[in-house]
Design goal:
It is a single chain. By secondary structure, this protein is an alpha/beta fold. It is 43% helix and 13% strand. It is globular, with a radius of gyration of 18 Å.
Length: 247
């Protein structure tokens, strides 16, 4: 299950972290991921705010038993119109900063995963690997989402070149052939369940397996229509369509 920082704050204010942990345990939820830490490699005021958020998130992650803290690459100050400078990665700076996040997270028993996104400054496997593999932290890896790989034009076969210890998390979903609106709009409004689009999740799954990944598989469906369904129907359809891809 994936948790968003703002949602966790709101829920904790209502029922407390202890009760949240009880609910997780009572429902036998073994794998939690917590998102999204941004600004972790910047300077100045944005970095100061990120550092405060980092401590808050790690403390919560420890109490809830979170497996992975998800961190965002550079998304720009305006998601709809990022500047060229914001989309150009400073790999050396990001490598050093990523290592710092991992070292802090290790003190809380938490792993760190950075996601590759086609609308960010980490939109290729080459850049992503240079940061994460260059940092070479035992609790640091990549989060690989089929949507971001496909929309970013990254061949699934390239996943097989990643050392398995640097693959920290996998997310499954699907999409239509054509992008609807901007990439950002397509990813937050128009994803589809695995097997209901054109992204060929079975091929993606095989490539991940070939890389030697043996961790849990997540399903990330962000859809303006799907999110309106009753919770039980969401869970059932998500489970059934995803498991069908492993047959």
């Amino acid at each position: 299950m994936g948790l968003i920082h703002a949602d966790v704050q709101a829920t904790a204010a209502q029922i407390g972290l202890k009760e949240m942990k009880r609910i997780v345990d009572d429902n036998d939820i073994k794998y939690l991921e917590y998102e999204f830490l941004s600004g972790w490699y910047l300077d100045g005021e944005r970095r100061a705010k990120s550092d405060v958020m980092r401590t808050e998130m790690l403390e919560v992650a420890q109490r809830l038993g979170v497996r992975n803290l998800k961190i965002a690459p550079g998304l720009g100050s305006d998601l709809y119109a990022p500047t060229e400078a914001e989309m150009t990665p400073d790999v050396d700076r990001m490598r050093e900063a990523f290592a710092g996040v991992c070292r802090d997270a290790a003190e809380y028993g938490v792993r760190v995963v950075m996601e590759i996104m086609p609308f960010s400054n980490v939109r290729t496997l080459e850049v992503a690997r240079a940061i994460v593999e260059g940092a070479d932290q035992p609790n640091g890896g990549l989060l690989i989402d089929i949507w971001h790989m496909a929309r970013g034009g990254i061949p699934y076969k390239d996943i097989e070149k990643i050392p398995s210890r640097f693959i920290g998390s996998i997310e499954l979903d699907d999409a239509d052939a054509d992008v609807k609106g901007l990439l950002w709009e397509d990813t937050i409004y128009h994803r589809r369940l695995p097997g209901e689009g054109v992204l060929k999740p079975k091929e993606f799954i095989q490539a991940v397996k070939n890389a030697g990944y043996e961790g849990p598989w997540g399903v990330e469906i962000i859809s303006e229509t799907y999110r309106k369904l009753p919770l039980a129907e969401q869970a059932k359809r998500s489970f059934e369509t995803t498991m069908a891809q492993f047959k």
